[in-house]
Amino acid sequence: MCGRTSLFTPQSRLEERFDATAVESLEPRYNIAPREELAVVCNDAPETIDLLEWGLLPSWADPDDAPRPINARAETLAEKPTFAEAFERRRCLVLADGFYEWADTRGGSQPYRVERTDGDPFAMAGLFERQEGNDGVEGTVTVVTTEPNAVVEPLHHRMAVVLASEEQQRWLSTADREVLDPPPASEWHAYPVSTRVNDPSNDDPGVLEEIEPDTQTGLDEFA
């Protein structure tokens, strides 16, 4: 799954990279959690970078009782009522420069940061909904997931769909599951980080720092 991300790439670089202008200032975020805002480029306004709340709320759902899925399986987008209409009509790019996964160890769960080897920002495939006037929530988003590549597989059985540059416009314009594959493992790496990242209030550059696997109990198997 994808349940925690980061986006601290300078706004000017993001705007150039995705050929879109941010609707408001993008503050550096190092530890973004569900129900917080993700930066997105939506297919109904591809010239802008918007901020939508993480956790999809379909337009027909009761906002007080409906689940708010943060992820949607690529394999069943067209079949699941929660995602089917958004898959056909409301696709987006979710911007990030890294995400976190937790590996089970003898000593508990060890967080790892996953990022591109070149450090560049990237676009995850997403679905969105608009909710103008709904209790202050203007829009919501979920991240599409797929089978993991060889970097993420030791950490989790799912990973976010990261779109290649040439696939981004295709995803925005067409409900095409052929682009929803894992990215090449050769372009990615993962490293252990402190359990400070477990607390979303720790949103600072310190959560990015690599730790020695043997500095926390039960991590010798990852050394």
From TrEMBL:
GO terms for biological process: protein-DNA covalent cross-linking repair; proteolysis. It comes from Halapricum hydrolyticum. InterPro entries: SRAP, SRAP-like. PANTHER family: ABASIC SITE PROCESSING PROTEIN HMCES (PTHR13604:SF0), DC12-RELATED (PTHR13604). The keyword Transcription does not apply. Residues 182-223 are annotated as: Disordered. Gene3D superfamilies: SOS response associated peptidase-like. This is SOS response-associated peptidase. GO terms for molecular function: lyase activity; peptidase activity; single-stranded DNA binding.
